[in-house]
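Regression test case RT-17, inverse folding.

Input:
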């Protein structure tokens, strides 16, 4: 069993390249020692968004344990010192795998704001 957290960030206009460069140079090295795997990361330039997923082998309790280790690390604290605020808004949620045989009902949504 794998627990996956999907993270979606709305990035300050004009800051996506700088954020993605910082993230790629920093986040994988910070998350791995706590037991995380970075599953993917994508920049959506036309929307100034950055979407990524982080996971651990195990259940939600194991994820929360790894998150506590990550948040308490001095390396993480150092990585955020003097970092400009580039994230305007974030959505973070746990995701569940869907198999090809799963029936999914979709609803069209419109994003506002």
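Golden output:
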């Amino acid at each position: 069993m794998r627990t996956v957290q999907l993270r979606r960030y709305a990035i300050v206009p004009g800051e996506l390249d700088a954020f993605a460069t910082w993230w790629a140079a920093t986040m994988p090295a910070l998350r791995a020692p706590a037991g995380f795997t970075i599953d993917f990361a994508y920049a959506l330039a036309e929307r100034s968004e950055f979407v990524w997923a982080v996971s651990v082998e195990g259940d939600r309790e194991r994820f929360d344990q790894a998150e506590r280790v990550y948040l308490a690390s001095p390396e993480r604290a150092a990585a955020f010192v003097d970092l400009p605020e580039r994230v305007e808004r974030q959505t973070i949620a746990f995701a569940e795998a869907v198999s090809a045989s799963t029936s999914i009902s979709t609803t069209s949504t419109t994003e506002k704001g």
